[in-house]
Amino acid sequence: MTRAITLNDVSKSYTRGARVVDRLSLDIAPGEFLVLLGPSGCGKSTVLRMIAGLEEIDEGRLFLDGEYGNDLPPSERDMAMVFQNFALYPSMSSRDNIGFPLRIEAPGSDPAPRVDATARMLGIEDLLDRFPAQLSGGERQRVAMGRAIARHPSAFLMDEPLSNLDAKLRNHLRAEISQLTRELGVTTVYVTHDQSEAMSLGDRVAVLRGGVLQQVGSPRAVYALPENVFVAAFIGIPRINLLRGLVRAPLDGAMTISLGKQFLRLPEPLSLDHQLLRVQQGREVIVGLRSEAVRIAKPAAARTGEVALTGLVEHLEFQGHEVLVHFNTGSRPALVPELEAPRPAPDRPDRRRRREGGTVLERLRVRAGALRAGSAMATAEPVQPDPAPAAAEPRVPGDLIVRTTPDIRLRQSMQVPLLVDLAHLFVFDQSGRRICPNPDRLPVLEE
To answer: Which long-range contacts (CB under 8 A, 24 or more apart) does 62-65 make?
Structure first.
């Protein structure tokens, strides 16, 4: 039997009142594979532990199959959890590790048939008599998954189960997890910070930042229509190009978005999305262009909806099947760390005082030096040093990354014509909210 899970305005706080999870609401359908995605410290593991009953819910309500479940102990929730660090008993063989929860649930029954069936499903029959120390990382994770599968739970809760494995093994087990969960038809909540896992595994993806749900939807919907600049920057490889722009919408001329030394001229007649940009006249915006929205071609080859730019090649990344080209277009990259950080650090008054006056040891050293120089030099306040020069922003090669085929011959410092497909143009306001495209629709596959 599979299970429906509902979180209704759920919040969790630890010390000093900081909310790790803030009013989170989610509906997980029976048999659905939902991925909780976000940077480290965003609260996704805490959400998983609250569903499992390992963490108390401070505010809000949890419903399991429509029944109130906040106070239900973990043993009565009929859920199986797979941890990041495998959590196998080192003194037990693989057979005993898989069968251990079965012996706890039904002390008088023989777990061997279910253990053997699970081992055949995972292809680990030859590992049943080995101990964890005799297994590789991938084999240990299969045994840990077997322990969860053998119970026939109503839901799987997986907390970054593949993060400790190498890339090749991670890709292989990712495919196995996807196939197994679909064959079993069990509700699965999967936590990860790896967007590749999220996009390839999930029926839906829920993106978290600082304990707040940013967006939930199918992988394709989250990629094609990010709700804000954080989601756009977090989803997609290579990362989306974010540039600072200025909307110019004269009454007697074409609408453009200035990017610094160049501009994007919006074709007329304006589409509905581009008409909505008129209200941003004279305002700074954040322009988002994914690497596939720009191609290397001359203006004469422009298709409908494409506009021309030029770029200076600064860096080439050979990926085998493709090349990522870093161009300098004279644009201003939009660096928005306050939007992309997992949680901004609070500026506490006591820390501010320590920065202004130095540490206790520093103040004592200043006073001791002044006393050695004579009483006329003694002072209660240290002499403030000259302010240090502001640190320069980190240098990033180019301001626009374009994906192309390896057969195109490019070299550094080459001037290259570019075409931008405005059908894939994202525009965000200064608060990071998406304002273009505005209608909640997805492009069809033929577009």
So the answer is: 62/5, 62/6, 62/7, 62/8, 62/10, 63/4, 63/5, 63/6, 63/8, 64/3, 64/4, 64/5, 64/6, 65/3, 65/4
Q: Measuring CA to CA, which residue among 343, 349, 432 is closest to residue 19?
A: 343
AA identity, residue 141: Q
Q: Tell me, what amino acid is at 255?
A: M
Query: Collapsing DSSP states into helix, strand and coil, what is residue 51?
Result: helix
Residues 211 and 83 in one domain: yes
Summary mean pLDDT of the chain: 83
Are residues 13 and 36 located together in one domain of the fold? yes
User: Can you tell me the distance from the alpha carbon of 68 to that of 85, in angstroms, rounded to the nearest whole number?
Assistant: 31
Q: Report in angstroms the alpha-carbon separations of 178 from 172, 175, 199, 200, 243.
A: 10, 5, 12, 8, 36
Nearest to 329 by CA among 427, 263, 284, 281: 263
pTM: 0.80
The residue-averaged pLDDT of 246-268 equals 88
Residues 241 and 110 in one domain: no
Place of tokens 């007649």: 269
Structural domain including 36 reads 5-227
Residues 215, 249, single domain; the answer is: no
What would the DSSP string read from start to end of 159-195?
ESTTTTS-HHHHHHHHHHHHHHHHHHT-EEEEEES-H
Exposure of 186 by Cβ count < 10 A (0-12 exposed, 13-18 middle, 19+ buried)?
Answer: buried
Residue 391 has what pLDDT?
41
| Closest to 334 in 3D by CA, of 372, 284, 381, 279 | 284
Report which of residues 429 and 165 the model is more confident about. 429
Look at residue 169 in the predicted model and tell me its pLDDT. 79
- Within this chain, do residues 189 and 266 fall inside the same structural domain, yes or no? no
Segment 398-409, tens digit of pLDDT: 789 999 999 888
Q: Closest by alpha carbon to 255, among 239, 278, 237?
A: 278
Quickly state the pLDDT bin for 387 (edges 50, 70, 90): very low
Which band of pLDDT confidence, cut at 50, 70 and 90, is reported for residue 115?
very high
Is the pLDDT reported for residue 35 higher than 50? Answer: yes
